[in-house]
Amino acid sequence: MTRRATDGSAGDADYGTIGTGYTDYRKPDPRIAALIEQALHGARTVLNVGAGAGSYESTAFEVTAVEPSASMRAQRPAHLPAAIDGVAEDLPFADDAFDAAMTTFSVHQWSDLKAGLREMRRVARGPVVVLTCDPRLVRDFWLYDYAPAVLDTEARRYPAISDIAEVLGGKADVSVVPIPADCTDGFNEAYYARPEMLLDPAARTACSAWSFVDAETSEQYTEHLRRDLESGRWDEKYGQQRQDPYLNGSLVLIRAVPA
């Protein structure tokens, strides 16, 4: 059964608690958005599952959004259509109702990954596009030296890319998504060249994996990072990343089309 929090959040994170102010830190990055739009090219109608506050919904398409969290639905900007209250595992649409379907930073939240992906495949005539992270690569990020339980949580929650591709079936292409140094979408790796951002409690709150770590541990992690930034130790070990225009990290884009 799909678990819901008090605000309607489905899956393992309660966005009624952590979703406040989400849009201040998780603004869609235009370069990532362009890759998603390219993957949806040729579609007119698009279903966005786990749509949140509307990140990466392009006005180039006629988008229908589904989002279980009331707090996230309330943060959708006025120029986007209101989202339907619903979950990935039980989409209220007919077979082949849309040209394409998409989901971004959402599959790791679902209580039943296979059911949700099968539903997306059922309602989409064409491509299903998934923006997610490869759990095999999550711990390669420097933050693992400072907040191991946070990235262990992410690695545990994100489904294997091969599992997603297998359930969607057909022909699946997987592309690494370069993360720009000034990325406006504040997931953990977006701050690879700006480590000071992760000292901001609101920036951390906008990354749901931090909500699985207790406050005392989170503070210890943050203090460790703060000390290394103040002493210059972080820059001694990782300072070159401040100069790198992109990070090829764990972020990937999956595009699956029917056989």
Outline the secondary-structure elements:
Blueprint: H1 15-18, H2 22-25, H3 30-39, E1 45-49, E2 62-66, H4 70-73, E3 100-104, H5 113-123, E4 128-133, H6 148-157, H7 161-168, E5 171-176, E6 179-180, H8 201-205, H9 215-231, H10 233-238, E7 246-247, E8 251-257
Parallel strand pairs: 1-2, 1-3, 3-4
Antiparallel strand pairs: 4-8, 5-8, 6-7
Structural class: alpha/beta
Query: Distance N terminus to C terminus?
Result: 30 Å
CATH homologous superfamily (4th level) name: Vaccinia Virus protein VP39
- Lateral strand order in the biggest sheet: 2-1-3-4-8-5
Under the CATH scheme, the architecture is: 3-Layer(aba) Sandwich
- Tell me the number of strands: 8
Instruction: Indicate the CATH class.
Output: Alpha Beta
- Main sheet record: 6 strands, mixed
What coarse outline follows from CA principal-axis ratios?
globular
Number of domains: 1
Tell me the fraction of residues in β-strands, as a range.
Answer: 5-15%
CATH topology: Rossmann fold
Helix content: 25-40%
Mean pLDDT: 92
Radius of gyration: 18 Å
Low-confidence runs of at least 5 consecutive residues:
1-10, 15-19
